[in-house]
Amino acid sequence: MSNTKYIFVTGGVTSSLGKGIIASSLATLLQARGYSVTIQKLDPYINVDPGTLNPYEHGECYVTNDGAETDLDLGHYERFLNRPTSQANNVTTGRIFKTVIEKERRGDYLGKTVQYVPHITDEIKRRIKLLGNTGEYEIVITEIGGTIGDIESQVYVEAVRQMRQELPTGNTLVIHLTLVPYLAASGELKTKPSQHSVKMLQAEGVQPDILVCRAERQLGDEIKRKLALFCNVKNDSVIESLDAESIYEVPVLMHKEKLDEVTLRKLDLPTKNEPDLTRWRDFLSKLKYPEHEVEIGLVGKYVELKDSYKSIAEALIHAGAENETKVKVRWIHSDRLTPESVARTCKGLQGILVAPGFGERGFEGKIATVQYAREQNIPFFVICFGMQAAVIEFARNVIGLKNANSTEIDEKTKYPVIDLMEAQKKVTNMGGTMRLGASDCELTETSKAFSIYKRSMISERHRHRFEFNNKYLDKFISKGMDATGTNPDTGLVEIVEIPAHPFFIGVQFHPEYKSTVANPHPLFVNFIKAAIAYSTTSK
Ligand code: GLN
């Protein structure tokens, strides 16, 4: 049995306080002190995974190497820690219940009444310990989704209470993230919401060890003492978390507040090694003091909710920092783009990115954007559905295949240049049935992609059903669009390029999932480079 330490992060008062960022920041600090750490998210909703959720509901669906469709917080975990996560890092109530009910149907419970306690709680505890038991991690941080007091999260808090009771003292720690609002009318910070939320947690049997307090103003010693006294934590365990300009500053701020030190002390772990944040600080200074600025148009159908394209937005930030360039994003709604409006909407951009997506709405707007970027020689980088739009536009306007389309949008199209694979045609269930997760891709050595990746075999993550239809490949090549990356096992086209264009790359996979602070994704880095070059030539 491993001696893994478990840290639980709960949230109180309101949602959206940034538990994921606090968990990621703490993990970053612990990792920078030499510990091996991973982070897990428990989501208290009934969907088995977020794959079937509309992005408007819950933001982007993040995909891991092993093909799990997960909560977007896992994206933060990977971006901060530069370590891949997997299905084990994200568990929902739906998945817990599914397992328990399947066991019950198999007769595994030997006639017992199946109940929240112990059967559901046992399954939750088993899932939490799965990561610890791999032996790979000294510390596992488990973020409990939702807000304390929600009906949905109660069973998770009970599982935490049991783990605290079962494991030796010093092997578990509870960090409660709360809000200390500032009332402008009275000019005061208010501790009562935090007191209530901690009381609720205590009533469920869990005493937090550390309070992390989100606040717009500095707490000051008096407020800290009051919070400590009434929430029953030590004075040094009230940590202030002020709003930061960038999420990437939070690890440094948390270090200043000694969150890592207090955590280690309470876990009976040595604190003597200061975290090595040299590379992190280097990234931050490039981010904060850029030398250039470019504006990139991000065309998509869910742009009102920026979280829908979280990984893309973050990958652009990483690539910007790498190029010491501020990347401004102009969010463009594909619904509102027409061949007539596209030039006006995209005026002044140094690069255009067409985002992934599903379904017909806004698709013709994406086609209009492709045509504009292709003809105007604007750096152009398109992902998944965006690549499919690029292929369709090329088929229609360059090859002359009138009304070419994807069978996702027009089932009866005469020229299905994007089509379903045979295996997908039989699929009727929506959940977890796309082409998901990492697969290999072989690059043509003369391609731009090869010069960017600097190797011929790469691995990237997928999340789609439709594919480039290889029946048309020769026509594309003869007219100037090359397939420069293909799957070595299936021959499926994964990358297209127009060599005559300064920067025109379409990828069927999702490179944004693999961009991290330590390893900005080379496609994004080179896209921004091309945008900088474009901005100097187009002046
Ligand atoms: N709708 C397209 C497909 O299923 C693209 C999906 C995506 O962009 N992730 O193939």
Q: Helix count, per DSSP? A: 19
Structural classification: alpha/beta
- Which shape, going by the Cα principal axes? globular
Strand content: 15-25%
Low-confidence stretches: none
What's the Cα radius of gyration?
Answer: 25 Å
Q: How many β strands by DSSP?
A: 23
List of distinct ligands in this structure: glutamine
CA-CA gap between termini: 64 Å
Explain what this protein looks like in three dimensions.
With 539 residues, the protein is α/β, with parallel strands linked by helices. Helix content is 37%, strand content 22%. It is built from 19 helices and 23 strands. It has a nine-stranded mixed sheet with strand order 13-12-14-15-23-22-21-18-19, sandwiched between helices. The chain has a seven-stranded parallel sheet with strand order 5-2-6-1-7-10-11, with helices on both faces. Strands 16-17-20 form a three-stranded mixed sheet. A hairpin with a 6-residue loop joins strand 21 (482-486) and strand 22. The mean pLDDT is 94. Bound molecules: glutamine (GLN). Glutamine is lined by residues 356-358, 384-385, 408, 463-466.
Any descriptors?
539 residues, alpha/beta, 19 helices, globular, binds glutamine
Would you spell out the secondary-structure blueprint of this structure?
Layout: E1 5-11, H1 19-32, E2 37-43, H2 55-58, E3 62-63, E4 69-70, H3 73-81, E5 90-92, H4 93-106, H5 116-133, E6 139-144, H6 154-166, E7 172-180, E8 182-183, E9 188-189, H7 192-203, E10 210-215, H8 220-231, E11 238-242, H9 250-256, H10 259-266, H11 278-288, E12 292-300, H12 310-322, E13 325-333, H13 342-345, E14 351-354, H14 363-376, E15 380-383, H15 385-399, E16 405-406, E17 416-420, H16 422-425, E18 435-443, H17 448-453, E19 457-464, E20 466-468, H18 473-479, E21 482-486, E22 493-497, E23 504-507, H19 522-537
Parallel strand pairs: 1-6, 1-7, 2-5, 2-6, 7-10, 10-11, 12-13, 12-14, 14-15, 15-23, 16-17
Antiparallel strand pairs: 3-4, 8-9, 17-20, 18-19, 18-21, 21-22, 22-23
Helix pairs in contact: 1-3, 1-9, 4-5, 5-6, 11-12, 12-19, 14-15
The structure holds glutamine.
